[in-house]
Amino acid sequence: DLQICQHRAPTCCTRKMEESYQAAVRRERTQSIQALNFELKYMIVGHITAFQEAFESLLRFAENRTSSLFETAYRPMAKEAAEPVKELFTDISLYILGAETTVESAVLRFFDSLFPLVYSRLINPGITDLSEDYTECLRLTRQDINPFGHYSKNMVTELSKSLWASRMLSQALSLGIEVINTTEHAALTKECSRALVKMQYCPHCQGLTLIRPCVGYCLNVMRGCLASVSELDAQWREYISTLEYLTNEMAASHDLEIALSGIWNSINEAILHAQLNGPQLSATVDKVCGQPRQHEGNLSAANIVPVKEATETQTFVMAHASLNNKRREFISYMKRSRTFYASIAERLCDGDLVMRDSSTCWNGEDVV
């Protein structure tokens, strides 16, 4: 009553053994594909972690640099500016990781929060009554009177370009893991599991436990079994090309490191612009929000001290070099995996599964 290993000669197999063999080939095939996938998946997962660590390192550096700007050049508002600065960099981090937010909304929200502080601590340091209503009025007025000139828009433009490539790369790496996981658990058809039993275990039913499949026979069976997986070849090649494009974009015009390290300077320029235009801003704000109570004495433009660039560049240089090295190493490895899905049958038929150094092998019917 054998269904798969039918043979004219006497056999030691039963129907139940055939069912056990089918379960065995399904398990073995999943394990074989998992073993093939492991190195590729390990490389991608490792680089997801490495890229994220490098991003975080650069973000921390840029955040510390921005905080120190307030502490050294704008001390009257440093304590209150700490929260908006933290929120800005949290939003940037979430954006890179794929959150439903935009660089523009993060930057403009930061400048909305910054304007009441700049206005009340630097432009009109005598203000004592900074009620919630007055603060909110200042926030809303920022969008109309544009106290920070073109600097806030420029910051949006620069960051959007550089962060976009980083965000896309982060999402693309996660997609790669999903694809690999899906192929690992691709179900074998009934025809495939029968063909695998015939190839691997039917010789056992005739007592031929040491004989192995012929190479050509193995390739035919594996290609048939993995047709749906090998169809991914064209898309996988395109995926590798996209990864290459994104890593090149990150290293070229959309340089993340340069954009992040320039945030503090953009903010500094924006604040200086607002201070220099203090009298005009005050006149407009008084019309829109009314005049708050204040002490005598304002900060004139003559008191403005432009901040010099910090010399704390070592951390940045190390993170920059680390990210560049990781990019090169990663894309070099991924390019070698370009034919991964096209050659999966060949790789499964390699090694112990087939006879290579013998004059005899199993062709599905007999020893040849």
What does this structure look like?
The chain is mainly alpha-helical and 368 residues long. It has one domain. Helices cover 69% and strands 0% of the residues. α1 packs parallel to α11 and α4 packs across α12. The two termini are 26 Å apart. About 4% of the residues have low confidence. It comes from Acanthisitta chloris. Its main location: membrane. It holds the Pfam family Glypican. Keywords: Cell membrane, Glycoprotein, GPI-anchor, Heparan sulfate, Lipoprotein, Membrane, Proteoglycan, Signal.
Throw out a few tags for this protein:
single chain, 368 residues, mainly alpha, 14 helices, 69% helix, rod-shaped
Summarize the structure.
The chain is mainly alpha-helical and 368 residues long. It has 14 helices and no strands.
Q: Over the alpha carbons, how many angstroms does the gyration radius reach? A: 33 Å
- State the domain count: 1
Instruction: Please give the alpha-carbon distance between the first and last residues.
Output: 26 Å
* Low-pLDDT residue spans: 296-311
Proportion of beta-strand residues: under 5%
The percent range for helix content is 55-70%
Query: Could you describe the largest sheet, including whether it forms a barrel?
Result: none
- Let me know the average pLDDT: 85
Number of strands: 0
Q: Given the C-alpha coordinates, what overall shape results?
A: rod-shaped
Number of helices: 14
Q: Which structural class do the helices and strands define?
A: mainly alpha
Family: Belongs to the glypican family.
Subcellular location: Cell membrane
Membrane topology: Lipid-anchor; GPI-anchor
GO biological process, one term: positive regulation of canonical Wnt signaling pathway
